[in-house]
Design goal:
0% strand, 2 domains, Arc Repressor Mutant, subunit A, mainly alpha, 12 helices, 248 residues
Length: 248
């Protein structure tokens, strides 16, 4: 029987043997362990040999379930992303319009998923097979935009725009402990400004103004401040476009 393709593995359409002993492993267990390994040690340390050792099996035994690392990482991404949020319910406890509350929930949730599995960003570039969970995320965002009057291409571009904003922030801070990272950034920034703040007066003044407004060191907010600022500005721009569409 030929090895299953990436699409067949992602969508569960590969032919399975109807007879034989119960397998000692499962594809789900292999993928879950691969995710745990990548989360703990980074994608660079993920190999079929290393994964087999963690599972207590030989590398060759893994190939009975997944042909290679390309298929494995595709399954990892889809499993790591999980189910999308319920964008229709997002506006129930919000004063925002349905589409805006839904997209905000979508963006905030995908930020958390990428932050939990930052290695997934490097695996979601270029032409590749997309699994059911990732497709569900796309469908959820399109659901939030349903009835806004935006065209199909505009709604797809909205997903690209929001997703790009989220991904760029996660890439800047990839540690699981964002508070600790933020404190490190704040300490380094204070040291740099003490040494050369007079050379960059506008930078120093901007961060000093933020510290005065929040009552905290500038970087203590971590990426969350930039996250919400960027989401708001993107949604503000969409709001203008949606209003224009409804006037036509």
């Amino acid at each position: 029987m030929p090895a299953p393709t990436t699409v067949e593995l992602l969508w569960g359409t590969q032919q399975r043997p109807k007879r034989g002993p119960k397998p000692a492993l499962s594809l789900e267990k292999i993928v879950a362990e691969a995710i745990a390994l990548a989360d703990a040690e980074g994608l660079a340390n993920l190999s079929m040999q290393r994964l087999a050792e963690r599972l207590g099996f030989t590398k060759m035994s893994l190939y009975r379930y997944v042909p290679g690392k390309e298929q494995l990482t595709a399954l990892m991404v889809d499993a790591a992303m999980g189910d999308p949020p319920d964008v229709n319910a997002a506006h129930e406890n919000s004063n925002e319009q349905r589409w805006r509350a839904g997209l905000r929930r979508w963006a905030e949730t995908i930020f958390e998923r990428y932050s939990a599995h930052p290695w997934s960003i490097s695996l979601t570039i270029g032409v590749r097979a997309v699994g059911p969970n990732e497709m569900g995320w796309m469908n959820a965002a399109l659901t939030a935009l349903d009835g806004t009057g935006l065209t199909g291409p505009e709604r797809l571009d909205t997903i690209v725009l929001l997703n790009g904003h989220i991904r760029s922030l996660v890439q800047q801070v990839t540690t699981g402990d964002r508070q600790e990272t933020a404190q490190q950034i704040a300490g380094q920034f204070a040291e740099m400004m003490a040494a050369a703040g007079d050379r960059f007066p506008l930078v120093s003044a901007a961060f000093a103004e933020e510290a005065a407004a929040t009552g905290a060191p500038p970087a203590n907010e971590g990426p969350g401040d930039a996250l919400n600022f960027g989401i708001d500005r993107i949604l503000d721009g969409l709001g203008v476009l949606i209003t224009d569409r409804r006037r036509l």
